[in-house]
Each structure stands twice: as structure tokens, then as C-alpha cells.
């Protein structure tokens, strides 16, 4: 059964939209911008892998699996990360970027629900001062697996370093909610890749699901290959704990990333009163308020109101044979949208 087709009980909802959850990939924005500081293609590639693996723990604040709100068509989410950079570009405001009131040295993020069937979220982030950007489109397919729920992430993202003309194409693992009738818990699973066509560097990373008997939770193993297709680095550990790297050519072993010792940078979002009607936190504010105050019936009614309005608008467009117009992203292929004002 496909979970996107059914309305889930309100009490298992996480109090935020899937669009906001995507912004958690930048919860360590310094790891993101640091990619540009490395001199060699190999070091830049290692840093891309480090940034990617640093991101997963930030979105999972609760041990119990919760499901974010399914975004409404046309919904948007904007935020910025202040990385405390004291460069002179601090004064420059990036007026035509994803967050017009941010400075050039901030990392800014925007996401928009660009399609309803399938439910696709398009997203884009940049740091103008560092000439780095990432954009992508993702949607989820969910399935019941007896006592667990699998959520597969479909789509990819491309991280671009403008100064080097390098593009890193990244895929994403699946998520699993286990023992949903008992004490639910969450894990990631599946194989992902990071590829840079220009330099020839690739990484194969596997998020290991816990074996039925014994075995540890949240393990990953990763292998990094050079342009000669030879392995030069092995990564293992926990994606929400400590990850270690071992380099085959130098025999050096080191802590690759420690999620416990690295602070998550909080995203900065405009107050709800200043947001437009279709921005995530404003759009879902009633549902969030009622969930927080444990008024489940009112939360369900508020959620149903938004979903019903979306259905009526879709029917109205179908009757008039009107195509949905996106706000910040333009169609760039089948089931793909690209941010209009990239760096």
C-alpha cells in the first residue's frame, strides 16, 4: 500500500513540513561552505562526503519516528544559516537570492512543492561569497512492510562549485519506521552514491539496517574511489554518532566526523507574521498549535481543511484546463524543476 495515498493519524505527525526538513541538510553549513577552501579535487571530494554524512543526524531529534506534513502544492520554505563569517562581503545583501534579506556570506535555502502527483519538493541553497550552490528535486514513496514502514527517497541533488566548474551528483537513502505497533524506532537504509564526473571521484555509501538478531543500529560503510577507480578511503561508524576514515595510501586512520561534538547551527526563519500565506510555518500554524497543545481533533480538522482546499483548487484548474504555475522554480525536464536565480 502506498502511504502517500492515505491520511495518517494526526498524532504521528512531526510538527513541521517536509520542506523544512530538507533544510536540515545544511545544519552544519560550515561543512558545506568549507568544500571550496580545499585546494585539490580529492580534498574537495572528501569534504563533500563529510558534509553529506554530517547532515542526517540533525533531522532526527526524536527517537520515535514522526512524519513531517505533506507539503501543499505551491507551499514554500525559506531560511538562512549564519556561519559568523567576518569577511567584508558581510555587508552585501543577496537581493536576488533565495532569501532576499540575507547577506552574501550566509547560507540561504529555499524549497517549494512544485508538483502534487507525484508530490515533488524542489530545493536550492547557496552561499554567494563562496560560489557554492546545491539544487535538487526529491519525493517519497512509502510502503507498509508488515510491522514497519519504508519511505524511499526518489530523486537527487547536484552540488556545484562555480570556481572549479565541478558538479557532485548525490542520491539519498531510505528511511524506516520499525515496530510501529510497539515502541516505534527509526533507521536509515540503502545504498547511495556521490559522483563528480569532471574529476572522476566517486563514493559508494551504504546505510546498514539492523540485523534481526544482534548487530548495531545506525551503521554506515562508505568507500571512496579516485579517478583511477582505485579505492583510497574507507569510512565506517554511525551516521548519528562517530564516523571514522581510513586512508589506504597513507594508512592514516582518523575521526571523520563526530556528530556528538559538532553543534547544529539553528536555521533562521522570518517570524510567522511576516511570512506569506503559503510559507510552511504560516500555512501549517494551526495544525502545529493544536498538535503542541494536544488538541488532536482540532489538529486533524485544520489539516483536513488545507488538504480539501488543495483538492478543490486542483479540480478547478482541471475544469479550466489550467497548468499549475510554480513560483521560484522552472521546469527543466521530466519531473525536474530548477531554481530560477541560481548563482
Automatic annotation (TrEMBL):
For this protein's source organism, the top of the classification is:
Eukaryota, Metazoa, Spiralia, Gnathifera, Rotifera
The name under which this protein is listed is Oxysterol-binding protein
Please report the organism this UniProt entry assigns to the protein.
Rotaria socialis
**A single MF term (Gene Ontology):** sterol binding
A cellular component term from Gene Ontology for this protein is: Golgi apparatus
Please give the Pfam families that the UniProt record associates with this protein. Oxysterol_BP (PF01237)
**PANTHER family in the record:** OXYSTEROL-BINDING PROTEIN-RELATED, OXYSTEROL-BINDING PROTEIN-RELATED PROTEIN 9
| Bilayer-crossing regions | none
Source taxon at top rank: Eukaryota
**What start-end ranges are recorded for coiled-coil regions in this protein?**
none
Where does the record locate the signal sequence feature? Answer: none
Amino acid at each position: 500500500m502506498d502511504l502517500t495515498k492515505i491520511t495518517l493519524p494526526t498524532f504521528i505527525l512531526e510538527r513541521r513540513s517536509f520542506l523544512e526538513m530538507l533544510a536540515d541538510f545544511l545544519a552544519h553549513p560550515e561543512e558545506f561552505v568549507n568544500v571550496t577552501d580545499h585546494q585539490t579535487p580529492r580534498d574537495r571530494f572528501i569534504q563533500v562526503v563529510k558534509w553529506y554524512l554530517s547532515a542526517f543526524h540533525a533531522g532526527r531529534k526524536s527517537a520515535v519516528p514522526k512524519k513531517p506534513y505533506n507539503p501543499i502544492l505551491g507551499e514554500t520554505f525559506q531560511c538562512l544559516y549564519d556561519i559568523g563569517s567576518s569577511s567584508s562581503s558581510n555587508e552585501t545583501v543577496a537581493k536576488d537570492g533565495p532569501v532576499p534579506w540575507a547577506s552574501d556570506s550566509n547560507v540561504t535555502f529555499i524549497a517549494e512543492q512544485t508538483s502534487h502527483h507525484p508530490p515533488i519538493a524542489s530545493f536550492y541553497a547557496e552561499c554567494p561569497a563562496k560560489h557554492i550552490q546545491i539544487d535538487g528535486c526529491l519525493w517519497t514513496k512509502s510502503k507498509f512492510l508488515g510491522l514497519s514502514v519504508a519511505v524511499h527517497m526518489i530523486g537527487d541533488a547536484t552540488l556545484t562549485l562555480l570556481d572549479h566548474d565541478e558538479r557532485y551528483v548525490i542520491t539519498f537513502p531510505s528511511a524506516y519506521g520499525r515496530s510501529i505497533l510497539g515502541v516505534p524506532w527509526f533507521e536509515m537504509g540503502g545504498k547511495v552514491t556521490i559522483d563528480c564526473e569532471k574529476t572522476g571521484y566517486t563514493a559508494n555509501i551504504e546505510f546498514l539496517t539492523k540485523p534481526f538478531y544482534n548487530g548495531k543500529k545506525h551503521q554506515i560503510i562508505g568507500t571512496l574511489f579516485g579517478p583511477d577507480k582505485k579505492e583510497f578511503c574507507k569510512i565506517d561508524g554511525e551516521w548519528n554518532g562517530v564516523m571514522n576514515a581510513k586512508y589506504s595510501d597513507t594508512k592514516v586512520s582518523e575521526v571523520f566526523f563526530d556528530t556528538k561534538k559538532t553543534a547544529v547551527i539553528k536555521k533562521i526563519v522570518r517570524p510567522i507574521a511576516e511570512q506569506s500565506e503559503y510559507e510552511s510555518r504560516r500555512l501549517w500554524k494551526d495544525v502545529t498549535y493544536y498538535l503542541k497543545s494536544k488538541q488532536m481533533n482540532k489538529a486533524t480538522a485544520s489539516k483536513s481543511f488545507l488538504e480539501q482546499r488543495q483538492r478543490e483548487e486542483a479540480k478547478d484548474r482541471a475544469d479550466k484546463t489550467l497548468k499549475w504555475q510554480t513560483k521560484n522554480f522552472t521546469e527543466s525536464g521530466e519531473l525536474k524543476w530548477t531554481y530560477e536565480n541560481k548563482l
